Q: What sequence folds into this?
């Protein structure tokens, strides 16, 4: 077994307010290692409005702009323009938005910026719900999951929105999925995004211990099973056309991923079967896109 | 009308709240309900090793391409890696956690590789000019005696080994055929021990030329004379002409003496000696048939050697028991009974029960009895307590007579090379305690590997180093997500045709590349190898590195006790304990 090589720099400082075992804190720590010091981050409303600390303190060691829920894409466009006016084309502008600010509330601003191919990296830190406000459903919440607004008597009826397909159809230069159980893959994708100009989109799956009803020590394990069960495949899309899928050799039934999580504990075998079929269909669609060649 | 704003400097810009202070004052460690900490634990292989080898330790050295380091680690506990790598029954591999994943690590082959590597370097331990302390006599130069002599010499004792035979090595020399253990390997390891200043005096049988009175100058005596007498079959004709003891025959062959045998050989017994005899006589151009009174499952011989014996043309007839050996000219007729298996006996194996009237005859030119071995007791000093054919001792080898210790096959029915080496080591330590007025029972307890009986000489000498929790890591405590299935490497064997032509060693050791590949498969249960999963996955950046190196320290000011490091550690090195409230 090889030692994982990750940069030593720490730009997520101590004392932050993330819950114990927070998947997003791991995501942030790794992402900041890959982005480096010359970065400005935009935080639309999310857990990350709280986690860094409260005024006049912050545990994030690079400049951060807190922004309104809807405004991730727009604020980033503005910060980029301001830096460009000052002749600073080097500093990276990155949005760190939750799934609420990406899939739902900020989708318009993101879509607008992506259509203009604004020069920033948009990172969606997806924990599949409005976790900061106490676990309400978002359009990133998976099928049949429990949230406070989709109780077990009436769990979520709709599958998760395919945000990657939406972003790919904007024909942006780079879009990728990544998750914390695969740190080297995550770092490589963020570094690759950094080396490209235009709108880059990274979809990060960050398991949430309280929201997913899982013990704090298994957030990495759950992240790994999300990939192994193909619930969350790891792939890249270049220019909206060229797909590269990371083939995961240890494929497991979706049940292994679901049974660890309290938010799925009410599922019947039949519902698990439906989820399994969904996952297989999505995987097939993805692999078909990956093998699509222009004649 | 629109109004244009022109800001003359930052002071005129609208107020915006800015956070410039850090959060380091916020000691999130106060949230913690459970505390992770680093704690190396015991691997199942090391705990199962009767010799007490630091198996994970030496295998990790191989992965680092530090073969000499591996050799040094093995030699802390075991002067016979070349012997053990070839003939040990490797209980370590039976306990290897990787067995539950795919296939166990080929630990024996790695040990052999290290010893072969060291011999190619002509690598030897040299004795420093340390002042010699007390004089110790060791009776018997087998694995127990030589292991004891080795460790005593390293503890700066003046050791003399007395051997009745003309060559040192005991059963390693006379009992194990050289196609399994080449004589040069044995010679090399014995001479390595002699290099430490151990005097080996051969041709001096204990009880004849030498007795306790003649050893008055020695402050302690270790008796390890082994079990060299073949057990009788107790059947009529069992001592006739042309009926030999398996051990005697092996001894003759191994010492290069002339052996006269007919063509068709019957071997009675089912242990390793029976197999060794059968394979040896096949190499002398004879036909060998083993007669065993139970079935294959009960056979005490090691599985792999049985397979090799069958490959080489040895026949085995199960559930057959000779009741009479008749001789007619040079031919022997064995009258046998067929057996069936009954209830379990005290050995836990099903007892063979004769089928009445099933008598039949088996003809052979010679009959070799290999029905187990016994201790020769007549020459032992009076006053030693004996029971059921072995000498009784305390746990540390003390016989009860002042300064007289015993070990090896003489005191145990677990008659393997590894147990003998471990027994010699234990006695070396007991003698050191005895001569220094220390409590050996307590000393032994302190240095158990796992729950024992395996012990660590390193820990005896360096009680504060390489600390390790005795807890033996189980398969369930590993995180195997970090390992990939891989095939166990196998040593190559000569073609059967070539094997049976002589007594040359039949297996070839690993190359450096293969050894490193195999070592890489080791899970390293309980020992940190610096994979840094704990550092990589910590959400609170609370795993402290010093420079680029993991410090194995947790920053408890900020660690929230999530337990990710605990569950992502592939090898069970990190423990969790509940915080006091």
A:
């Amino acid at each position: 077994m090889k030692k994982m090589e990750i940069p030593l720099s720490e730009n997520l400082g101590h004392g932050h307010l993330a819950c114990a075992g927070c998947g997003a804190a791991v995501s942030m720590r790794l992402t900041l290692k890959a982005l480096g010091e010359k970065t400005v981050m935009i935080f639309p409303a999310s857990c990350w409005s709280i986690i860094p600390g409260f005024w006049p303190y912050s545990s994030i060691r690079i400049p951060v702009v807190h922004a309104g829920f809807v405004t991730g894409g727009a604020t980033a466009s503005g910060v980029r323009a301001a830096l460009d006016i000052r002749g600073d084309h080097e500093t990276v502008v990155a949005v760190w938005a939750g799934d609420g600010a990406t899939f739902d509330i900020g989708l318009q601003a993101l879509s607008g910026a992506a259509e203009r191919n604004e020069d920033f990296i948009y990172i969606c830190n997806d924990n599949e719900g409005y976790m900061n406000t106490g676990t309400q459903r978002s359009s990133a919440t998976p099928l049949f999951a429990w949230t406070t607004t989709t109780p077990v008597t009436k769990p979520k009826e709709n599958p998760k929105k395919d945000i990657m397909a939406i972003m790919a159809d904007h024909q942006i230069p780079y879009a990728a999925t990544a998750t914390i159980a695969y740190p080297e893959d995550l770092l490589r994708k963020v570094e690759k995004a950094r080396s490209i100009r235009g709108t880059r989109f990274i979809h990060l799956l960050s398991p949430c211990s309280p929201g997913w009803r899982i013990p704090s020590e298994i957030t990495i394990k759950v992240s790994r099973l999300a990939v192994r069960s193909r619930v969350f495949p790891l792939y890249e899309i270049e220019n909206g056309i060229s797909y590269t899928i990371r083939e995961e050799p240890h494929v497991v039934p979706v049940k292994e991923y679901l049974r660890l999580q309290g938010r799925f504990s009410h599922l019947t075998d039949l519902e698990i079967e439906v989820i399994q079929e969904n996952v297989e269909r999505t995987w097939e669609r993805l692999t078909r896109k990956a093998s699509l060649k222009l004649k | 009308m629109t109004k244009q704003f022109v800001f003359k400097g930052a002071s005129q810009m609208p107020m915006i709240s800015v956070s410039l202070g850090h959060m380091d004052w916020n000691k999130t460690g106060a949230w913690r309900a459970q505390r992770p900490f680093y704690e190396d634990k015991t691997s199942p292989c090391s705990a199962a090793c009767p010799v007490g080898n630091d198996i994970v330790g030496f295998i990790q050295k191989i992965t680092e391409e530090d073969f000499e380091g591996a050799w040094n680690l093995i030699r802390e506990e075991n002067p016979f890696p070349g012997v053990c790598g070839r003939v040990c029954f490797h209980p370590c591999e039976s306990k290897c956690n990787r067995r539950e994943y795919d296939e166990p690590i080929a630990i024996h082959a790695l040990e052999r590789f290290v010893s072969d590597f060291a011999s190619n370097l002509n690598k030897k331990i040299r004795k420093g000019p340390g002042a010699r302390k007390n004089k110790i006599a060791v009776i018997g130069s087998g694995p127990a005696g030589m292991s004891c002599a080795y460790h005593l010499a390293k503890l700066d004792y003046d050791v003399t080994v007395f051997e009745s035979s003309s060559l040192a090595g005991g059963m390693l020399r006379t009992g194990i055929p050289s196609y399994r253990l080449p004589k040069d390997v044995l010679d090399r390891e014995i001479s390595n021990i002699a290099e430490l200043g151990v005097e080996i005096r051969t041709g001096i049988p204990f009880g004849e030329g030498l007795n306790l009175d003649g050893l008055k100058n020695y402050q302690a005596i270790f008796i390890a004379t082994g079990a060299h007498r073949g057990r009788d079959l107790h059947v009529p004709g069992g001592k006739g002409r042309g009926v030999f003891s398996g051990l005697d025959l092996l001894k003759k062959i191994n010492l290069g003496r002339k052996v006269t045998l007919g063509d068709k050989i019957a071997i009675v017994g089912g242990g390793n000696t029976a197999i060794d005899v059968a394979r040896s006589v096949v190499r002398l151009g004879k036909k060998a048939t083993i007669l065993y009174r139970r079935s294959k499952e009960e056979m005490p011989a090691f599985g792999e050697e049985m397979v090799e014996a069958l490959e080489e043309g040895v026949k085995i007839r199960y559930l057959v028991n000779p009741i009479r050996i008749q001789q007619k000219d040079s031919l022997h007729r064995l009258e046998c009974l067929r057996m069936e298996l009954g209830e379990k006996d005290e050995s836990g194996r099903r007892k063979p029960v004769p089928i009445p009237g099933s008598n039949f005859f088996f003809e052979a030119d010679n009959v070799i009895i290999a029905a187990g071995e016994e201790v020769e007791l007549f020459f032992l000093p009076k006053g030693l307590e004996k029971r059921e054919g072995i000498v009784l001792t305390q746990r540390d080898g003390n016989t009860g007579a002042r300064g007289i210790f015993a070990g090896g096959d003489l005191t145990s029915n677990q008659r393997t090379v590894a147990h003998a080496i471990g027994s010699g080591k234990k006695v070396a330590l007991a003698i050191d305690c005895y001569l220094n007025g220390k409590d050996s029972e307590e000393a032994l307890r302190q240095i158990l590997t796992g729950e024992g009986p395996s012990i660590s000489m390193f820990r005896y000498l360096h009680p504060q180093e390489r600390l390790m929790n005795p807890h033996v890591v189980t398969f369930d405590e590993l995180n195997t997500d970090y390992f990939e299935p891989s095939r166990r490497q196998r040593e190559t064997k000569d073609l059967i045709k070539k094997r049976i032509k002589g007594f040359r060693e039949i297996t070839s050791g690993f190359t450096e590349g293969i050894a490193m590949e195999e070592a890489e498969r080791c899970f390293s249960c309980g020992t940190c190898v610096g994979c840094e999963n704990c550092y990589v996955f910590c959400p609170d950046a609370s795993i402290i590195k010093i420079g680029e190196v993991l410090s194995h320290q947790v920053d408890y000011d900020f660690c929230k006790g999530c337990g990710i490091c605990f569950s992502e550690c592939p090898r069970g090195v990190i423990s969790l304990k509940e915080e006091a409230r």
Notes: The first helix of chain B runs from residue 44 to 48.
